[in-house]
Amino acid sequence: MSLLEIIGGIFILVGSVFLFLGGLGIFRMPDVYNRLQAGTKATTLGAMSVILGVGISQAATDWTWILKTLVIVIFIAYSNPISSHALARAMYKRKKFPLVKSKAENMDAYREIIETEKEEVKS
Amino acid sequence: MENLSFSSKMSRFLVLWFFLMVLWVLFTASFAAQELLAGLGVSALIAVLSVNVFTCCSLKILYPKSLFYIFVFIIVFTIELVKSNLDVARRVLTPSLPINPGIVKFKTKLKSNFSRMVLANAITLTPGTLSIDLIDDTFYVHWIDVQTTDPEQVHKEIAEKFEKILLKIF
Questions:
Q1: How far apart are CA B154 and CA B163, in angstroms?
Q2: Percent of chain A residues past pLDDT 90, beyond the cut
Q3: What b-and-e string marks burial along B80-106, b requiring 16 or more CB atoms within 10 Å of the CB?
Q4: Strand pairing partners for B104?
Q5: ipTM
Q6: pLDDT value at position B1?
Q7: Across the interface, do A107 and B29 touch by the CB < 8 Å criterion?
Q8: Helix or strand or coil: residue B102?
């Protein structure tokens, strides 16, 4: 085994640990928004790390793998947050309101937008 | 689509052409003259066809100062991404599940659509926050551990370190 393969293996190991933690987060969190929080962060870094690890370990035979995996990593960093944002927004528009634990005021600032939108449709 | 003057359209076209060419070189990973010529032709064609849709940035983004701040942004962003993953790991592995969720709002100072989108993406990947919607210049952010609901404080807490850099790039 060459040094590059060992470094790539470490990247893949770290990535898979984070992917596992993301899965655990989706299982343990109470509502959809908190699940998205855990899911998005862990899958972004996890997938990026696994893909970079593959690129680095293959670079021992063909160095162009690093460039190609870098393009994929940039694409993931760019598209993953957008998809989770779209999911969260769609959930709110379907009136699945987030869980709020504390009794402090104005913990759900987005609700007023949804309420006014509903009234506009009615009138 | 926006109505732009010829010169600003031209500068957007050149930036798009440059980025498509960089993408071509990353994919083909060769510097043979034939490959580069084909890439120049193909990316110029795509840039001409899509310049009205992908109006991300003008030539200002290729100045050395902007490139330097893009580099700084990538470093800060990577550190925040790792920090947010450790944060998620800590919350998930604690048996009592320490969360205090809620939705907060704040106003951004950024002007262009593209920079706002970059800020929204960065917020989603920083510790404990998830951007839900952007109406005019107000961000609505789901925060897993709400410390304050005052928009100014929220802005300082969540967005300021990215916004400072983004204001210098765009």
A1: 13
A2: 22
A3: bbbebbebbbebbeeeeeebebbbbbb
A4: B141
A5: 0.81
A6: 46
A7: no
A8: strand
Q: Which of A36, A27, A22 is nearest to A90 (CA)?
A: A36
Q: Which residues fall within 8 angstroms of residue A106, CB to CB, at 6 or more apart?
A: B149
A111: pLDDT strictly greater than 60: yes
From chain B, the residues in CB contact with A25 under 8 A are 88, 91-92
Give pLDDT tens digits for A76-93. 988 888 898 888 888 888
Domain residue limits, chain A: 3-95
Query: Which 114-153 residues of chain B touch chain A by CB within 8 A?
Result: 120-121, 124-125, 128-133, 135, 140, 142, 144, 146, 149
Q: Residue B102 and residue A100: Cβ atoms within 8 Å?
A: yes
Q: Could you report the per-residue pLDDT of A25-35, keeping only the tens digit for each? A: 888 888 888 88
Which letter, b or e, does each residue of B141-151 get, where b requires 16 or more Cβ atoms within 10 Å of its Cβ? bbbbebeebee
Give residues with Cβ within 8 angstroms of B110, minimum separation 6. Answer: B116, B119, B137, B163, B166, B167, B170
Write phi, then psi, for A105 (nearest 5 degrees): -75, 150
**Chains A & B: contacts with CB separation below 8 Å:** 127
pLDDT higher than 90, residue B35: no
Residues of chain A with Cβ-Cβ distance to B89 below 8 Å are 18, 21
